[in-house]
Specification:
It is a single chain. By secondary structure, the chain is of the alpha+beta class. Strands 10-9-13-14-15-12-11 form a seven-stranded antiparallel beta sheet, covered by helices on one side. Strand 14 and strand 15 form a beta hairpin. The longest helix is centred in the N-terminal third of the chain and has 25 residues. The chain is globular. This is S1 family peptidase.
């Protein structure tokens, strides 16, 4: 049997429609979509995506290309500055012009690092880790409170925001008091929107699952090497899926909803081939080149099987949403519309994969807000590898073997965050950066330790749990210098250099991508 191709990835544009990026598999026995057009506009921006950005964001070709390029740059710089400034990091966002990167810090000494990176420092009172801790308190105290539809960290205002329905401000303030969140660190936003997951119980493209005795439709998210990622509410673990052509497709191997995510993974059978593209339903395929996370304020687009493609802006990250089915944490909020059946479909900033549609309010006639589950969280949770147009992307957590003794560790110097230290007795250890920790988005941590000659220093990466306790997530041991890479979810991390034997000065370089 001819293998059908799962084409998932970048964003597409269909005039007058909204959608989640999804590339339809081709029917067995029909022509594969490989001959479809893949035209590009200035800056490598596809004309279909450019059309959607013009329509929804009012940008011309040059402005759209500039914003997307700046967004990708800002994503990498933000991750590096988060590691470099450690616990002083207060979050990052693109200003309303779409090009100015602002980075909040709690210490004026950290501002020089921000300026050196080409960003604008903003001195704030609370670090991002402190804001996340306040938001976590709300997760416990405000869950299932009637009249509240969500809450999130708002880095530009350096506060947490509680979203309440009209007439429910007192309930919001009461929930904040129970959580121990002061009014000085809180904003209450009034909105009559009532978010819901975006699946439809009706027969249509592109793939189907059985839910509650009926058939629900969702949109494929992004291709991974063994299947595709999608929303967790699009099927429980063990649920069989059917493709758009009514042929058996695969099985839901992983699903989280509600709770700390809305993420799922479908392993496909041998009749389906994951591909790094998105079908725009107009004869074009758009590539997925990577998964660099875009910052707050970035332009973003989504496509889906119900409505086509729409674009907008990232408004906030780390949002908790109260759905009728339960509370979901860690979502990203946008001003892009979506409708039933778009759930699970992909979001992109240019050709960089961002996440899969979870739910929202409104529709693509009157507009609305839509939330997506960050993609890198799904990849890290299941050690999945994103399929990209430039080769399989970083998803699996790996620890390369240590360098041979005497080998030059030139890669250490190339990493953007550099820290030096000295250990004076065997058995001692030191935490970096500077005895503290750093806040990181979901992504790949890369580190290199240049140890002193004759000593055995181990390199350990640790992540804090929700009680502030650190646990080891990756380590590199043995003799000689050390290298380490690890792909993980967002959170607070630190490196620990452990002197197994010997003493002396060491150099540590690291980065987060």
């Amino acid at each position: 049997m001819q293998r059908s191709a799962i084409a998932v990835g970048a964003v597409v544009a269909v005039a007058g429609a909204a959608a989640v990026a999804f590339t339809l598999p081709s029917l067995a026995g029909t022509e594969e979509p490989g001959g479809s057009k893949a035209a590009s506009a200035p800056g490598g921006l596809s004309p279909e995506l450019l059309s959607a950005m013009k329509r929804d964001l009012g940008l011309n070709s040059e402005q759209a290309a500039t914003r997307l390029a700046r967004s990708e740059w800002a994503g990498g710089v933000s991750a590096t500055l988060a590691a470099q400034t450690g616990e002083d990091f207060g979050g990052a966002w693109l200003a309303s012009d779409g090009t100015t990167l602002k980075v909040a810090v709690t210490d004026s000494d950290a501002a020089s690092a921000v300026k050196a990176a080409g960003a604008v420092p903003v001195l704030v009172k609370r670090s991002e880790s402190e804001l996340d801790a306040l938001k976590t308190k709300l997760d416990a105290a405000a869950a299932d409170v009637e009249g509240l539809t969500g809450w999130y960290v708002d880095v530009p205002t350096n506060k947490v925001v509680l979203v309440a329905q009209p007439g429910e401000k007192s309930e919001a303030l009461a929930a904040a008091r129970r959580a121990g969140v002061s009014t000085e660190a809180l904003t209450v936003k009034i909105s009559d929107a009532q978010p819901k997951p975006l699946f439809d119980v009706r027969g249509a493209d592109p793939y189907f699952i059985n839910i509650g005795g009926g058939q629900a439709r969702c949109s494929i998210g992004f291709s991974v090497t063994t299947g595709f990622v999608t929303a967790g509410h699009c099927g429980e673990e063990g649920t069989a899926t059917t493709g758009f052509n009514n042929e058996a497709q695969g099985t839901v191997e992983f699903s989280v909803f509600p709770g700390n995510a809305d993420m799922g993974f479908v392993a496909v059978n041998d009749d389906w081939t994951p591909r790094p593209v998105v079908n725009d339903f107009n004869g074009n395929e758009l590539p997925v080149a990577g998964n660099t996370e875009a910052p707050v304020g970035a332009a973003i687009c989504r496509s889906g099987s119900t409505t086509g493609t729409f674009c907008g802006t990232v408004l906030a990250k780390n949002q908790t949403v109260q759905y009728p089915e339960g509370t979901v944490t860690g979502l990203t909020r946008t001003d892009v519309c979506a409708e039933g059946g778009d759930s699970g479909g992909p979001w992109l900033s240019g050709d960089q994969a961002q996440g899969v549609t979870s739910g929202g309010s409104g529709d693509c006639t009157v507009g609305g807000e839509t939330f997506f589950q960050p993609l890198n969280e799904i990849l890290a949770a299941q050690n999945l590898t994103l399929v990209t147009s430039e080769g399989e992307g970083g998803a699996e957590a790996t620890t390369p073997p240590p360098a041979e003794e005497g080998e030059e560790a030139s890669e250490c110097d190339a990493l953007p965050v550099q820290r030096d230290g000295t250990i004076t007795r065997a058995g001692q250890n030191q935490a970096q950066p500077n005895g503290g920790a750093y806040r990181a988005r979901a992504g790949t941590h890369t580190a290199c330790l240049d140890a002193p000659d004759g000593a055995d220093f181990d390199l350990v990466l640790q992540k804090a749990n929700n009680r502030g306790q650190f646990r080891t997530v990756a380590q590199s041991t043995g003799t000689g210098d050390k290298t380490l890479t690890f792909t993980g979810r967002s959170g607070t991390y630190r490196y620990v250099v452990v002197a197994t034997s010997g003493t002396g000065a060491y150099s540590l370089g690291f980065n987060v991508q």
